[in-house]
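Hi, here's the filled form for the chain we discussed.

Project: internal
Contact: R.S.
Residues: 532
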Amino acid sequence: MNPITLRRRIVPTAILLSSLLSGQGAGFSFFEPVQPPRSFQVMVHRGQSRQSPENTRPALQRCIEDGLEWAEVDVRLTKDGQHILSHDASVTDGAGKVWKINEHTLAELCQVDVGSRFAAKFAGERLLPLKDCFALCKGKLNLYLDCKAVNPEQLTREILDEGMERQAVVYLNLAESRKVQQASAGKVATMTKWRPGFGGAEWAVTNCLAAVEIDAPDLTPAIAASFHRVGIKVQAKVLDEWDKPEVWERVIAAGADWLQTDLPEEIVAQALWRRVPKRPVQISLHRGALRYAPENTLPAFAKAIRLGVDFVEFDVRTTSDGKFYLLHDSTLDGKTDGHGPIANTPSSVVAALSAGVKFGQPYARLGLPTLEEFLTATEGKIELYFDAKAIPPEVLAEAVERHHMSDRTVVYQSPKYLAQLKAINPRIRGLPPLGDIKDLAAMAADLKPYAVDADWDILSKEMIAQCHAAGVKVFSDALGKHERVEDYLQAMDWGIDLIQTDHPLRVMRAIELWANRQSLNSARSPGGQNQR
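And the returned structure, exactly as it came back:
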């Protein structure tokens, strides 16, 4: 055997031995941002890039707020050899100027406004240096570093210096992966693409990989099991045409550890409802799924339906010529590109407004839906939580009856309004506000509402029991300071019937923890599976 051939065989073997001794590659131990961990985790493609400018601080912050485990971000080198987040080789600022990443220094690029083109509310948002990315995510969110153009040895030092070695997996080709492995003495995890033609799991072991990325169509239970037997994580790429429920379900069943996706909220929801078909509480999404699409618009309600929640809350107001549109505020200024009170504006003007441009450029041409458009889109698909801001009760009753939704609608309004509505159609359920438990007896006697919308601060086990004894359900808005998993769990233990939220994944996490606790208690109880 000639020396060159011998060296080619010895070097990979030496790397493998070094990695096994140091813990790199097979069996790599990653930080778990969510405790207790889920059976699978999501990797959000470029951060929450459908609601924020991709690869930016807000895109990563939203992943953290939603309690997700991973974000995929793209890394490039600046002119002065610094790492910064950017998918493309160049970016365009708010004024339309193109900036090539490798032709400008880090200091110059950190002045580039990459937010204005997405939406005015992101004006002034800058490119994110890798070091700042690490500071934001440390102890909160793991990172899949997709290395578009990097210095492997320098990147390795930066990961180690920031103490991010258990929170990052570096995606590179095999040649550059070896540089990371050698520079880190096996302490930094690497990953690359695996295809069926590459051979079995031994290929990944030989190349000292901690994980492999597999395109969704190529992943099977046998393939996942072969990697798991040697301690290698499997990431299923489910982007674009693969980012849909039937593919998620298949790759999760096949044993994927991580799913790289643009729709993390839908994956988490679908998996939860498969596992927990009987819910301890109902969920209403405030103005639709307003974290993921502009509030009170058809995409926000379509998202809520896909998330599998029970109710969508929506607001209806009237134009100057008596037409009904979905809008929370009394004026057009807050959520549209219009101005002034909607009550003073004709429908011809309202119909031409954008209801999405302030949320993000992808929704710039989205209009405010009419009540008729909304009812057509949601008919028979979800329960309606109708906030009757400005619509006569007889018009409301006729509209929901025409769409066969009378039995699936609760209406939030004053007791006087609800009494009028009940006289018109008693099948439409009333939901008056309740700010003090002392008002319950009279309200229950006079109105006999289906439920009350109780102020969260008056909730207690005794208060909820008192409502239930009167035949009244308890709904409450966990908005603002009560949007916390701990608060949801407390209310669920007290017996609350419905939680209204802006943060569906937080409520779903509470339900997941509640189900875990129920399973554990069941297993420990007499006759449970763990009894000996």
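Let me know if anything looks off before we file it.
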